[in-house]
Design a protein that fits this description.
- This protein is of the alpha/beta class.
- The chain folds into two domains: 5-62, no CATH class; 73-220, Mannitol-specific EII, Chain A (3-Layer(aba) Sandwich).
- Helix content is 43%, strand content 15%.
- It is built from ten helices and seven strands.
- It has helices at 5-12, 16-25, 41-51, 58-61, 73-80, 91-101, 110-123, 180-193, 197-204, 209-220; strands spanning 31-33, 36-38, 82-86, 127-129, 132-133, 149-159, 169-176.
- The strands form two sheets. A five-stranded mixed β-sheet has the order 3-6-7-5-4. A two-stranded antiparallel sheet has the order 1-2.
- Strand 1 and strand 2 form a beta hairpin.
- The chain is globular, with a radius of gyration of 17 Å.
- The protein starts with a helix and ends in a 15-residue tail after the last helix.
Length: 235
């Protein structure tokens, strides 16, 4: 569902004037339909994470509407697992090595997955700052897997991904989803988790396995409920 300016203003706890200013000065992703602006939820999540802008917790709840059972992030991490010491001297080599090591079933097109990830990365960096990136296609990646998965990949050496904060990337989160709706749901949960300082500290320490999953599991019990929301974000 495409969001309107008033809806986005409510989710970001700012005025509609601020939303229009962010579109003009901070590259907030929006599409013009006549005199109206429309917003894609996934693109907004990416933009908010990249710009470290807080979102009202209700924004994350919206992805859970409907009858389809939706996975939690901890479960997706259990399915996707962790990759350590991923080699690569540049981001193209890193992405290729990540895709080759992802726990995907036979028959899944790894070359296709790499091509869509690289096409997106070549267009614009998916680094969100603090040495973290979330590689993904402009449109959600949906592959023939039995369950959605999120894989946390730690690089052997930090690599320049062109992040705005200038920090090289050492950790990647890669989502592989069963439906577009599941992809948006997990992206929302991941964006929420990465707002948490404890989770980011675990990433900085390159924590993997049960310790990381347990931290995310504890956090997600409050997703959509807990979280500090500022009354007005400043441009």
């Amino acid at each position: 569902m495409q969001l309107t300016v008033p809806e986005v203003a409510r989710y970001f706890k700012v005025s509609e004037k601020t939303i229009h200013r962010w579109i003009a000065t901070r590259n907030m992703p929006a599409r013009r339909e006549g005199n109206l602006c429309r917003f894609n939820r996934a693109e907004l999540l990416e933009w908010a994470a990249f710009n470290k802008i807080e979102v009202d917790p209700s924004f994350f709840n919206e992805t859970a509407n409907g009858d389809e059972p939706l996975p939690d992030l901890a479960g997706a991490l259990k399915a996707g697992g962790f990759l350590e010491n991923v080699e690569g001297e540049d981001k193209q080599a890193v992405l290729r090595n990540v895709v080759e090591r992802l726990p995907l079933p036979e028959g899944v097109g790894r070359d296709f997955l790499f091509q869509v990830l690289w096409a997106r990365e070549a267009l614009e960096s998916t680094a969100i700052g603090d040495g973290i990136a979330i590689p993904h296609a402009r449109n959600p990646i949906v592959l023939r897997v039995s369950r959605p998965q999120c894989t946390l990949c730690y690089l052997a050496r930090p690599v320049d991904f062109g992040a705005l904060d200038g920090q090289p990337v050492f950790a990647l989160f890669v989502l592989v989803s069963t439906t577009v709706r599941v992809h948006l749901h997990l992206l929302a949960r991941l964006a929420y988790a990465l707002r948490n300082e404890h989770v980011r500290e675990l990433v900085r320490r390159r924590v993997a396995g049960d310790q990381f999953i347990e931290a995310v599991s504890r956090l997600q019990t409050g997703m959509g409920v807990e979280g500090t929301v500022k009354k007005e974000q400043q441009p």
